[in-house]
Amino acid sequence: MAKQPEPSLVNSLQSEVAHEASPMLVFLAHHARIIIFCTVLFIVAIIAYGFYGTYSQNALEVEERELGRILVMKDKAQRLQALEAYAPKASRTMTNQVLFGIATTAQELANHPTAYAAWEKLRSIDPAMKVPGTLGMVQALQAQKKDKEALALLEALIPNLSAGNRIPVQTKIAVLAENIGDNARAVKAYEALIASSSGQENTALWQQKAATLRLTLQPAK
Question: What is the pTM of this model?
Fold first, then answer.
């Protein structure tokens, strides 16, 4: 006579639960396979997450070392070349640092178009870099004698600045507007400076500048 297969642990549990047992015990017995499967799956997920976290941390450390090696290069041209080659494969965590390195190194090399592009991309992907990124773009434009474009960027930046940070930017706007001969915009900038001066030592100078420029806006008699 053929030997009967031994019942599995789950089957034994199900068969030993009396019908009069508590509903919870009956439920556990009849769904034991699902419960065991979910438990195993949960444990596997925890282990996998741990491995992923360890791998991610190790990958970040490797990336930081590589970027550090590039940033300490004394030859600026080689540093810029290495940063530009590294940028496409940089992780999202390191992208800001790579772009900042490109922008500042390009500025040191007077490679203003490259610096402008790096600052522009940096401010587009990181809201926290909107102000410094814009100021970097302005610097690159001024170095290329593109004062009109620089002026437009600065004027658009004003609403994003706190009251305390507006004065140096408004001053720059006034000077740039004068440089390109747009006296109306210069007057507007000086008037904004005067309104926000609250006893600034330069208030008298701004008032004088505004008054002088207003005369140029009056129609000739």
Answer: 0.68
